[in-house]
Design a protein that fits this description.
The chain has a three-stranded antiparallel β-sheet with strand order 1-2-3. With 273 residues, it is mostly helical. It is built from eleven helices and three strands; from the N terminus they run βαααααααββαααα. The protein has one domain. α9 packs across α10.
Length: 273
Amino acid sequence: MGDWTPPERRFSQLGLRLLTAAILIPAGLFVVWSGGWWLAVACAIFGGIMAWEWAGMSGHPRGWLLSVATAIFCLGLPLEISWLHVFLGCFGLALAFVSNAGGLRIRSSAMLGWLYVTAMAAGLWILREGPWDGRTVALYFMSFVWASDAAAYFVGRGMGGPRLLPQESPNKTWSGATGALLFTGVCGIAAADLQQASVVLWVIVGMGLSLTAQIGDLMESGLKRRFKVKDSSNLLPGHGGVLDRVDGLGAVGVVGSLLLWSFPALSNALGLS
């Protein structure tokens, strides 16, 4: 079914979204530019909030414990001690399981949620601090995600049309998804010119990042439908919760860092070594 919402209602929250973005984007750019402990503290804060939001959605009665476990794990990221990371990971999973008075389903959901939010935080950390030009990589990848989100929103809301997955995310349209892919492809051409690298490769990477971000967004929407909630929280006016805002970026952090680790020549080919 197409989207027949009147245009004035489609953009009813645009002002709030722009205001929130005007605050969050500069903060995100500063943290990524600085890296190190600035980034670790930001991951701890936002990772803890995401864990608390997950607990609220899934019915976990002690969300603050998940938040503490997530924050501790993130603060351990700058310490290049492998056994500590493993220990903190096992500690977080164990705490998610034993801190819940519910049955096995809710306990398993708590463990899954803890893995979900910490993987996104760790992915963004590795993307910025990995053995490549982390600052440039992270800024490019974040910019592609933001470009994809903006294009999907404005094209989807402006053109409307058939919905992408109405049962999972009724506000997303095929026109928005296509517009996001095409726009990030254009951004890839610009990035290739700036980095003096392969245009074809950058277009593929740009569109791939858009696709990854959209899949991450749809996964988050599907989880919310399973939990029968509209937003993960109402902390961010016009956006919902932190999970609602960083789901696509978190997916890009995980997938991007895995690709760069698995294929070391990729960063060289992109001019990002």
